[in-house]
Design a protein that fits this description.
Elements lengths: L1 H10 L3 H27 L13 H12 L2 H21 L9 H27 L1 H4 L28 E2 L17 H14 L2 H14 L5 H29 L7 E2 L1 H6 L4 H29 L3 H28 L5 H18 L5 H6 L2 H8 L2
Parallel strand pairs: 1-2
Helix pairs in contact: 1-2, 1-8, 2-5, 2-9, 4-5, 7-9, 7-11, 8-9, 8-11, 9-12, 11-12, 11-13, 11-15
Bound molecules: fe (ii) ion (2 copies).
One fe (ii) ion binds next to helix 9 and helix 12.
Length: about 375
C-alpha cells in the first residue's frame, strides 16, 4: 500500500491531492516501520528482501497502477485502507504480556485513521473529474508493478522543463528590490519542490525490498517534508505575489530523476540538489529577521532546518548503503546517468554536463 501511494504521488496531477498522498506515504511507512521494529524486538527482524511483494500482491499493485489515477485515488480508501484499518482495529495482543505490540497497534490505528480521513477528502474533491474512462477490464500484460517515470501537474499549472534557473526563465520579472527578488525566487524554488516529493517517493517505491529500514523511513519523511515545502511555497506565493498559478512550474528535476533508479535519483537530489538550497535560504531568513518580516523568517527557518537534516542524513545513509560502495562513487554514477538522460532528452550535451560543478548542476536541475 505504501508503494501504491508513493507511485500515485507522481501521476495524480492535482496539487492538493499530491500533498495528501505524500503525508499518507509518511504515515503508512511509519506504521510499517514500527511493526518491523517490534518484530525485531521479538527476534524476527525481516531482511529487506522479505519485504518483497508476493506474486499476488505484486499483481494487485500492477493492476491498481494501470488504473487511471483519479479512479485509483477514489478506490484507495475503501479497497486498500479500510481492510488495513480492520486489521489494526481488533487486538490480538495480550496487554500485559505483549504491551509494546499493543501500543504499536493503537498508534498505527490512529495514524491509519488520519491517513484515511485525508484520502477520503482528496478523493471527494476529485469526484467530478473522477468520472473518466472505465478501468480497463483486461489485466495488464506485465505482472510487475510499474511506477510512473514522470510527474504530472494539474491544468492550473503552466510548466517549463529546460532549466531550474528562475532568473533566466522566460517569465522572470525584476521586482526592483534584491529582497523581493530573492524571496520570489526562493518561494518558487520551494513550491516547485513538488518534484522533490515525487523523487523521494519514487526512490521509496523502488527501494522497499533493497534498502534498510532507516533509509526507507528517511525517504518517507522527506516525501512529506518536500510536500510541506511545496505547500509553504504555494501559500507564500499567494500571500506576497498574487495568483500562485501565474508562476510557471519547473519540471526538469522529475523529467530527469523519474527515469533513474531509486538509488540514482536519491543520490542525484542529495548531492547536487539539497546542498545548493540551504545557504540562500538561511541568508534570506537572516535578512527577513533584520527587516522584521517574521513570517518569512519563520518559514525559511523551518524549511532550512528540514533541508539540513535531509542533507546530513541522506549523505550518511547513502554512504553506508548505496550498492556502488560509498557516497563518492554513488555521486559519480548518478552524475553520469543524469548526463545521459539530459542528452537523450535533447536538453544538454552529456560531455558538457560532465564538466559542470555542483552549483551549476543545482541551477540546472534544482532540488
Ligand atoms: Fe525542500
Ligand atoms: Fe529537501
Amino acid at each position: 500500500m505504501t508503494r501504491l501511494l508513493a507511485a500515485s504521488t507522481l501521476d495524480v496531477a492535482e496539487f492538493e491531492a499530491k500533498l495528501v498522498l505524500a503525508e499518507a506515504v509518511h504515515a503508512l511507512a511509519e506504521v510499517a516501520a514500527s511493526c518491523e521494529e517490534r518484530a525485531a524486538e521479538l527476534g524476527a527482524a525481516p531482511k529487506p528482501d522479505q519485504r518483497r511483494a508476493t506474486d499476488e500482491q505484486e499483481e494487485r499493485l500492477a493492476v491498481a497502477l494501470a488504473t487511471p489515477p483519479h479512479q485509483r485515488l477514489a478506490a484507495l480508501p475503501r479497497a486498500w485502507l479500510t481492510p488495513l484499518l480492520g486489521m489494526f482495529g481488533t487486538s490480538p495482543f495480550d496487554p500485559l504480556l505483549d504491551g509494546p505490540s499493543e501500543r504499536v497497534r493503537r498508534r498505527g490505528l490512529s495514524d491509519l485513521q488520519d491517513a484515511l480521513g485525508g484520502l477520503l477528502d482528496a478523493a471527494a474533491r476529485l469526484r467530478p473529474a473522477a468520472d473518466q474512462p472505465a478501468v480497463p477490464s483486461s489485466r495488464p500484460a506485465v505482472r510487475t508493478a510499474q511506477r510512473p517515470t514522470m510527474g504530472r501537474r494539474d491544468e492550473r499549472f503552466a510548466t517549463f522543463e529546460n532549466t531550474r534557473d528562475y532568473r533566466g526563465a522566460a517569465d522572470w520579472r525584476d521586482l526592483g528590490s534584491p529582497y523581493d527578488n530573492d524571496l520570489l525566487e526562493l518561494v518558487r524554488v520551494n513550491r516547485d519542490e513538488i518534484d522533490a516529493l515525487e523523487t523521494f517517493a519514487l526512490a521509496l517505491f523502488d527501494l522497499v525490498a533493497e534498502a534498510d529500514l532507516e533509509s526507507l523511513r528517511h525517504l518517507a519523511r522527506l516525501t512529506w517534508d518536500e510536500a510541506r515545502h511545496a505547500a509553504i511555497g504555494q501559500e507564500l506565493l499567494h500571500e506576497r505575489f498574487g495568483d500562485p498559478f501565474a508562476y510557471e512550474c519547473s519540471m526538469i528535476g522529475i523529467r530527469v530523476r523519474g527515469q533513474m533508479t531509486g538509488w540514482h535519483a536519491w543520490t542525484q537530489i542529495t548531492v547536487f540538489g539539497e546542498l545548493g538550497i540551504i545557504g540562500p535560504m538561511r541568508a534570506l531568513e537572516r535578512t527577513a529577521r533584520r527587516r522584521g518580516d517574521d513570517r518569512i523568517a519563520h518559514a525559511f527557518g523551518f524549511i532550512a532546518s528540514d533541508e539540513t537534516m535531509h542533507l546530513r542524513d541522506s549523505r550518511r545513509l547513502l554512504d553506508r548503503n548505496h550498492p556502488a560502495g560509498g557516497l563518492a562513487r554513488a555521486a559519480d554514477a548518478a552524475r553520469a546517468r543524469a548526463g545521459r538522460i539530459l542528452e537523450e532528452l535533447g536538453l544538454y550535451d552529456a560531455e558538457q554536463f560532465a564538466q559542470l560543478d555542483e552549483r551549476q548542476i543545482f541551477e540546472l536541475l534544482g532540488e
